[in-house]
Amino acid sequence: MGDFVNEPFTDFAVPANRQRMEAALKKVAGELGREYELRIGGERLRTDQRITSTNPSRPEQVVGVFHGATAALVEKAIEVADRTFESWKRVKFDQRAEYLFRAGELMRRRKFELNAWLVYEVGKTWPEADADVAESIDFCEFYGREMLRLGPPQPLTPVKGEKNYLQYIPLGVGAVIPPWNFPAAIMVGMTTAAFVTGNTVVLKPSSDSPAIAAKFVDILEEAGLPPGVVNFVPGRGSAVGDSYVVHPKTRFIAFTGSKEIGLRISEFTAKPQPGLRWVRRAVLEMGGKDAIVVDNEADLDAAVEGVAVSAFGFQGQKCSACSRAIVVKDIYAEFLKKLEARVKKITVGPAEDPKNYMGPVINKSAMQSIQ
Question: In this structure, are 295 and 278 located in the same domain?
Fold first, then answer.
């Protein structure tokens, strides 16, 4: 096993790469609008609930129609994951890591196709989509290697007359709740970290981006991951969101999203509940408010470029986006003039058109918050 190396980004200035991306967009366009079932254990389930994913560049275009979970089906998924955990936790760590390496290789082979799904479902431009998928592959490769490192017994400080070692053990069922803005990378990262360490997963993708999660679950199935290790359970947060978190067999929650929902999950995990046998754990990422500081010794052109790229890449829909520029007073006017000129050069339009630097925001609510 070689050392970890980041997955390279695709150079779309190369004609062959542009052609492959155009072909992938055409292929995926022909697959838009299909229905997707829930996947719990080895079952594919349909319900009366529907979640419709649309293309934010063209809101009338349906990306996919997803059967949504009821509270009863969320409970069923957690029970199935809990039963599967009893066998999955006994699978050797190197075997679990192998599933990640297989999944990463399958994603690498289908990189352009996965890029295309991101373009259509969340309005990522070609480079933004490509970076999202590359990071997803990185998570598979990195976490697989980390499992190989951390899986064996770990040495401790030797004490004469004692034999001591540290062994990491899995926890149980995890509810994985990723966001729509990095629907591949964060979803893949949280899901693979959970199951490679011997846990089982109930995956609730964002209602704005369930298709890319469904494609990843397809890849896990193709990689041979046993049924019930990762369960695909999309559902409307407003209707069944609490069900994933409050079940007494949910051992931990991995969440990326709003502060409001993150704090709600934190409150749930802190309160004792009937039937709960442990202190539940939560991994919560709730955004940021990032600043770039520009002083009077800075290269002003470089600072302007950095602020513009950070603030407007993927329409600013990142927790890492520059949302504040703090500029020393005596260069403020010049900085603002240069920034205004730079921003006016940004091209805006449908994400599938590579000439556009900015695509759409994710949905009508996001658009209204800007207006």
Answer: no
Q: Which residues are catalytic?
A: 285, 319
20-58 pLDDT, tens per residue? 999 999 999 999 999 999 999 999 999 999 999 999 999
- In terms of Cα–Cα distance, which of 221, 89, 102 is closest to 168? 89
Structure-token match 């695909």, residue found? 232
**Cα 14 to the center of its chain, rounded Å:** 28
Domain that holds residue 324: 290-370
218/312 same-domain check = no
The DSSP annotation for 293-328 comes to EE-TTS-HHHHHHHHHHHHHGGGG-STTSEEEEEE-
The CA distance from 175 to 245, in Å, is 7
Q: Count of domains in the chain? A: 2
pTM of the model: 0.95
For residues 217 and 345, membership in a common domain is answered with no
The residue whose two tokens read 């207006």 is 371
- Determine phi and psi for 31, rounding to 5 degrees: -105, 0
Q: Any alpha helices (H) in the chain, and if so which ranges?
A: 15-29, 71-88, 93-109, 111-122, 126-150, 185-196, 210-222, 237-246, 259-270, 300-312, 329-343, 364-370
Between 111-122 and 126-150, two packed helices, what is the crossing angle to 10 degrees?
Answer: 120
Sign of CA dihedral 202, 243, 365, 292: negative
> Could you report the per-residue pLDDT of 84-97, keeping only the tens digit for each?
999 999 999 999 99
Longest dimension (CA), the chain: 72
